Protein 1
Amino acid sequence: MIEKNLAIIGAGFAGIAAGLAAKEKNIDATIFESEETWGGLCGNFSVEGFRFDKAVHLSFNEPELVKKIFHKVPHYVHSSESNNFADGSWVRHPVQNNLRQLSVEERIKVIKSFIDREKIPETEIEDYKTWLEIQYGKYFAEKYPCRYTRKYWATDAENLNCNWCGGRMYQPSIDEVLFGAFPDSPEPENVYYTKAMNYPKTGGYKNFVSEIVPQLDIKFNCKVTAIDAENKILTFANGETCKYKNLISTMPLPILAKLISKNPEVLKAADKLQSTSMVLVSVGYNKKFDFPTNWFYVYDEDIPFARVHSPSRKSPDNALENCSSLQFEIYYSREMPLKFSDAELVEKTLQAMEKIGVAKISDVTVTDCRHVDFANVMFYKGMEDCREIVRREVEKNKIISCGRFGEWDYLWSDQSFMSGYNSVEKI
């Protein structure tokens, strides 16, 4: 049996940051990772010379510690410009500020919808759909963000609360809407919540923390299958055990709850904590494409993917010489399961890719299809109450839970890193 002062479950950004903080405090710590390598959701994989991150990752919300660590790594600084594809048209993001690229009839409908929107105090808004209608009007809400919600969040907007969306969805004034609707007016300012985004020149996104990893004790292929919180013992799938004094977990909160509790109320609350899952269809091309932006969004519901990004545009190191790549994200959930097999999703993705004019199927040299079980926390109405029940159970068992899925919150990678780093302070 291994004995440790501090055991850390998971070698994603949060777990690595916790390991760094423990090292700085001279705490004997080991990170136990279920996979063969580190990185978690910020990790990557390679297929025939093409490197793909596990979904789109760029660093921008940078606390001072993150800047100090990440900026040591040679990196590119990208603009946050992005595009949207909807009903046969390409529109600059966000749509509400760039109506000029829509037909005259569509612009009139959106503007009238915006002017006629109801005025309700935000404190009285109970669901995301209502929030969207109050911000943009009913026509725009249903035609654009509600459609995208079904694709990205794999549920209807009325099922979500609006506690997560502040700052992520731009809320324009009527002047901004009108200004962006006239073709002869100057191009509107980029109103994305950050203007610049960083990405390593080599090694994929996880390379931002690669200098930390050699300093840490990480044991791979150690999937936790049981936690005896009373006796402080971890059991792994390989049969090994670890006696710990302190425990930090980055595993998804509902999974952790089921390993430590038999309380029906806790288990019921944990079961209600839902997340989206994701299919990544990764594609390598035999030529270099000049993609205009690092990523774009797709609203059409007959197209399987919701978001697309270009690993090769973020860094040429992610592709073979004179080649390029895209990664297509397809989301699903317990409520909206996948309708097609992996092979069918690849086929439909390639067909849609050609339909929207991104590339031709004849340009494709590599395809890969894989699943990510936990993609985003779903903010269902009442989710926070269930989360609090589970969090209290975790605290009662003297376990510190951190990271995106450990906190069960909408954390970017920078925030997840700080969540892990700060968790050591709680020991």
Protein 2
Amino acid sequence: MGNGHGNLKSTIAVSLNNYLDAGAIVAGASGLSLWQRYLNLTEQHLGWLNFISANCLGAAIGAIIGGFLADRYGRKFIYTYNLIVYMMGVLLIMCSVNFTMLFAGFLVTGISVGIGVPASWTYISENSDISNRGRNICISQMSWGFGPMIILLLGMLFAPNGDLFGWVEAISQAVIGADAPQNAVNVFSSRMVFLSLFIVAFIAWSIQRTLEESNEWKSVSQEAGAADKGLLHDIGVLFSNKTAFKTVCYLATIYLTWNLVASVMGFFQPHIYETAGGVDNETSNWMNCIQWAIIVATTFLISLIIDRTSHRLLYIIGLLFAISAWVMIVGIGVNGQTGLWTFAILWGIEGGISVQIFYALWGSELFPAKFRAGAQGLMFFIVRGLSAVWSIVFANIYGENGEGFVLSAYCMLGLLLISLVVGVIGCPDTRGKSLHQITKERYGDEVSY
């Protein structure tokens, strides 16, 4: 662990991965209609793009690979190479002229996002002090909130009716000519949004490749030796330890039940506001943008107290806001701005005290360093993979025009209640303890590899 200034600097550098993660999801979702018209895509095409994107299966595949790579070759190994993959995926999307290129770009970007997630939360915890580990995880979550907020703003500015669309038109004419079809010109607004992600990814890669390796990983790596027995062996080691297995079940349960709700809102929320809520696209985008601003502000406030406040209490408060949001929108009704704004504010506050904060914190605390990232990668694989399936199920429940919204809302409430009950029952006591102390309490002096 470094000093406070040092670990804050590395936290900010690594947290850019969360910006790129959430940014890729929102950039993909916000530009779907433009790509649909440009490439004449069907609803099935759009479903496949979501299924393999950073929101679902792409990230799931990347996470299980990236987690065990980070444990085997180090956290710095991920930061040296992974964002190059991300930039390749974004570049593919920017240059897409057919569905195959767009599909490949979404897949490569999603895999890169998944690879980076376990290493990021692990590295942040391993380079934090006892007094600021929770704060640093919150900082990474603030970056996760800034991503959608900024991408939504850019999307509105670059949109065909946006204030900066004149720039988009000028760039498109320089690239594809002045006589290009209007749909080909309009899709350049999405290309510009992805260009912003490419620029941020390049900056993040330039900074992250200079980071020092985690001292805790170096220490464990020297003890374990350099033998490479493969991914399946590493997964077997994780599941052979009863404490680790129980921890995987606990964390996967609370994160999955919450994420099934959050992943739907991350991708379908604008669609829900416009179909079930009946508001126009611009109003929907502003609601989402303001909601993300609330998430960032709330997360900042939580970062000031999380290392001095009961984690169980904060966990309960966050999920009570989440449940209240869905109860209110069912009670008030979705067909009106009062219900939608109430939901947006409550869900925004929940996002600032979300289950993901505690999953990221506990996931990096409750496993030994030798399979800390791998365990997170495995859980992320499970959660994002099932979220991909759930997105298809949800679409069928919700219906084409939101006729199944109430039933969908009750499903969301059920999932959030499970996350609340299981989370409270199994809430670990880790606040104020070092990672070494937590590992010793849970696994004893020796952890068999």
Protein 3
Amino acid sequence: MLKKDFCILGIESTCDETSASLLEGGQKVLSNVIYSQIEEHKKYHGVVPELASRAHAAKIAAVISQTVGKHPVDAVAFAHGPGLPGGLMVGRVAAETFSRLKKIPIIGVNHLEGHLFACEFEDGEVKYPLSFPLIALIVSGGHTELWYVKGYGDYKVLGRTRDDAAGEAFDKVAKLLGLAYPGGPQVSAQALKGRRDAVNFPRPLLPGTWDFSFSGIKTSVSYYLRDHKDVSVPDICASFEEAVCETLVKKTIQAAKKYKVKQIAVGGGVAANSLLREKMNAAGAQHHIAVRFVPRGMSSDNAAMIALAAWRQLEHAGANALTQKWDININPNLKIKNWGK
């Protein structure tokens, strides 16, 4: 059993945020430092992998130093996938270096599990442990996945996006409209001034499967702009956001009813979207299903979620937690898998 003051250093570098965090006793976030690369990528309207890798390499030592200070650390964890290869390698090298210097265990964590467990945070502490079984919706710039979760480390992937992730679609539509990067917040801000029913963009529900597909909505926006000279950017944003959020909510609620769960957990950067929260909470209340969203401050990529995911894995491992050899191989296409299988 881990000590109450057992402290894990988490490291996150999968995309365009360089982050380190200290989690004590699997409960309290002592620090969570994030260096955002938005300025580096803004003029390209998207993440440039080579620039991201360079920024991670330039900033990670300072981010870790600022996070740790003189606090003792008992284990180090890093996200070993999925993500950009260069960023993953920077995270691994940093974690391995820290592990060897301090002679402490090193743990590789699935970035997507981190987004799920981040739903347990509130005000820098783990206040809301997940209630199993549940349906998880992981929705971000790079991923949109639906899981049936029986317990910590016990997953069944129901569906994934077949093309663009939901967050990616937001960014691409923002670029089509000439809005600034990152596109998601810009589209949502414009949508507040528009009508959700102004344009009937498609809802790709893909009957008979739990998969998602958002490239068609993005293409519909492109065609609409091509075919209409006088357009209202707020109306397009509101209508697009409505179509995406309606699709996400319907699929998630359908899965929750199919698997007869009492809780839905929503994690990832798009989980910060106000309309998604409004519609998912309303649908959950209608069907008597509790909905747990990640706190907005923890919805984007951060290392606190990586540290918590590592804590859950250590708990699961029991007596062998600190002596077993954990997988630290980086895998840009890492899939979610059950622990010990």
Protein 4
Amino acid sequence: MKKKLVSILLTAAMACTLFAGCSSPTQDESDTSSSGTETEADAEASTGSLSEATVVDIANLPIEGIGAQVTSDVKANEEYKIGYIAKNTTNPYMVAQSEGVKKAGEDMGFEAVTQAPSTADSVEEQVKIMEDMIQQQMDVIIVHCADSNGIMSGVRKAEEAGITVITIGTPAAEDTFLRTGVDYKETGEVVAQEIADALGGEGKVIILEGPAGAANAVERLDGINEVFAEYPDIEIVASQTANFKRTEGMSVTENLLQQYTDVDAIIGCNDESALGAMQAVKAAGMDDVLIAGFDGSVDATNAVASGEMYCTYNTDPYGSGYLACAYAVNYLNDGTEPEGKFIPFPTAANDPLITPDTVQDYQDNIAWWKVIQ
């Protein structure tokens, strides 16, 4: 089998500086009490990337398309075994990502082995699965880390065994061969710009933040704030956490609307919090507030289609799993390495924004959740 060691280039001092305090258990962005299942696509408290994002021209990616339409011409030259470790089997995002890996195995001609902890989001179980995959002599292990620091013992063992490690979403605490998944800051920029344009550059906005200290939430909020800083007539009247939950999105918005009765837009930093805001706005009898979220979930896209939400963002777990496999197979075939350590997917170039004009096409043809229905 063809295997190569992946070099770790950062010093221990730098790693400690970047990741101090990041060993706490992962926070889930979903609110199961409001929807019955976990539907949040960015369901992790990520620590951010070690490497700067390298955005590749979509024409040069080893895949084509996005969501349910993703395809690739990449083919395995040998009988490779690629393992994928999800965070859980309850979140539709994780299920879709696993399906992306399985479909890549079918299309590209390798054996795909997909597993997840029996206890949702257990990094200890993820490490045990990695150890088992090492014994099974995987050529590549792809993992959606439950915790950046906690996964490192498994990562190091895999790399010592000559197995290439790829992460999706939450990175490991040190650079691996590749990380993919969305660039959270860019997602914030895209949605904030859409809202700014819809408001004509002026208005009052509420932001429902993610969990305090969760780097993916911080990065997304940074992107939103940077865009709005360019519009002096857009006033952020409140920016408060709703912890990526629908129930909190509703209760926080209800409280804020008592103080701010002339709000023009609300951005929830995931679909669940945005859907909670939508419920609060409806209860208040306000029908002219633009509501935006992130993920492209079933409920959110239905709300965009009905006019109750203005937009959301397709974070495409299915495509990101498929893309990780394409890079893995190319490397195993001939040593071709990615253009950078962090290649975001999807990006703005993939047209991930879902608006009233695009929602029907998204639901009919692109939606990542179509692959698990």
